[in-house]
Each structure stands twice: as C-alpha cells, then as structure tokens.
Model the fold of this input.
Amino acid sequence: MLKKSAYKRVLLKLSGEALMGDDAYGINRATIERMVADVAEIKALGIELAIVIGGGNIFRGVAPGAEGMDRATADYMGMLATVMNSLALADAMRQAGITARVMSAIAIDQVVEPYVRPKALQYLEEGKVVVFAAGTGNPFFTTDTAAALRGAEIGAEIVLKATKVDGVYSADPNKDSNAVRYSTISFDEALSRQLQVMDATAFALCRDRNLPIKVFSIVKPGALKRVIMGEDEGTLVHV
Ligand SMILES: Nc1ncnc2c1ncn2[C@@H]1O[C@H](COP(=O)(O)OP(=O)(O)OP(=O)(O)O)[C@@H](O)[C@H]1O
Ligand SMILES: O=c1ccn([C@@H]2O[C@H](COP(=O)(O)O)[C@@H](O)[C@H]2O)c(=O)[nH]1
Done:
C-alpha cells in the first residue's frame, strides 16, 4: 500500500542563505532547482503547502553591510530581498509545472499580489502553493517569525524549518564541534537555553499556538520527504 503523508497542510520555511549554494551571494540556479524538486516530491503526495523563504542570501537588517544604517530601513531592504527570492522560487516552480502564487506583506501591487488571508486559504484549497513574501511586513522581525505567524494563520499542522543544519543542537554546530543534536526539545527548553537556530519570537508564537516546528537540513537529499512522511529526521520542537 502507498504510504500517506503525515500532514495535510504545512508551512515550509526555506532558508534564504541556503539559496546561495556554493556562491558568495544571491541565487544559485542548481540549488533553487534542487529545492523545487524536493517541493515537487512532497506536493505530489497531495499536501497543501505554503512557503516562507528567507532573505539572508541577499540582505539582512543586521548584516555587516547594513552597519550604520537606520535599522528599520535596513529591515525593509531585507523584506524586499525575500520578495526577490519568493518571485524566483515561484518562477522556478512554474518551470517545474507547479502552480504557485506569491503574496506580499508589503504592498507592491505591480509586482506581486498583497497578502489577504481568505485568498491564501482559497489558493491552498485549490492545491496551489502559496509563497508568503516580505516577512511579517514589519521591521525588527525575521522570516522565521513570519513562518510561525502565517503557519498559525492558515491552520498549518506544523512549521518545517529547512535550513543548513540538520536539527537543533545544544550550541551552534558551526561554531562548537562538541554540540549535540536533540531529536526533540520543548519550546520552553529551547527558549531557556537561548538556542539561536530560530529567534525567540518564532518559538514563543508557535508555543502559544501549540504549533510544532521541525528543524531539518535542506541540503540533505530526501530529508524533506522523510519529514513529511513522519519519519525520524531533524529535531521536533514541541509544547
Ligand atoms: N543551537 C543551534 N542549533 C542549530 N543551529 C544553530 C544553533 N544556534 C545557532 N545555529 C545556527 O542557526 C543557523 C540557521 O538559522 P538562520 O536563521 O541563520 O538561517 P536560515 O533560517 O537558514 O537562513 P535565512 O534567514 O536566510 O532564511 C544555522 O546555520 C546554525 O549555524
Ligand atoms: O518580518 C520580517 C522579516 C524579515 N525582515 C528583514 O528581512 C531580513 C531577511 O530575513 P531573514 O529571516 O533574516 O532571512 C531580516 O534579517 C530582516 O532584516 C524584517 O524586518 N521583518
């Protein structure tokens, strides 16, 4: 018998930084095509899929390149970076035969339609992939928080954080070789240990909405599908 997906509706947070692949900046073609192939594989299972993509491959408000800038201005630039990534992702999905709609939290009507919750729900019910661009639309936040927020708004069963590391560790594994990976961890423990894999606002929002998060590697082949099938992969953050 064909195995079924563990979820009906999910919010996938894709790392903007991972989009660079081995490049120093921007969008690596082979990398975005591989991400889209992963998305196509899970979409074929019949799940309803919404995506938030980060902007770290182009600009972050707290990046060295923003030093001395007004923080809110820099953050708006970061949000615009996520619009570019969202458009690139939706177009790559179009080329792969997946119908996607980009909805922006910041009005740029000539470029992309605005985020309107009932419309987003309609697209999901129609089987379209919805890409939420421009984060929350507010400075001083991140796309992780946007993923938590939109995930809660659309009634997703889980937020899937696809990033460059394969889970939540006791410390940043890129800085501490003694860091150990958790297979599960509670929101309260992640917050009290100040684990930086996601920002505290995202953790707190998901905790309060009882919305679990799965952190896993976007670089590891097949990991997204294993997560969707409910198999042992990455780290589950739970209430
Ligand atoms: N305790 C931890 N466990 C795992 N990763 C951690 C931890 N603390 C810090 N990190 C770092 O967090 C990074 C992932 O989060 P980050 O928000 O920087 O990236 P992203 O979400 O993948 O990118 P973007 O913001 O561009 O979408 C990892 O690459 C890792 O270096
Ligand atoms: O709600 C939001 C989301 C994002 N930003 C700014 O954009 C960049 C890029 O997002 P990442 O999550 O870091 O990939 C972020 O650093 C912020 O500067 C925002 O202000 N509000």
The pocket of LLZGTKA7 (ligand 2) is lined by residues 16, 54-56, 60-62, 75, 78-79, 81-82, 135-136, 138-139, 141-146 (CB under 6 Å).
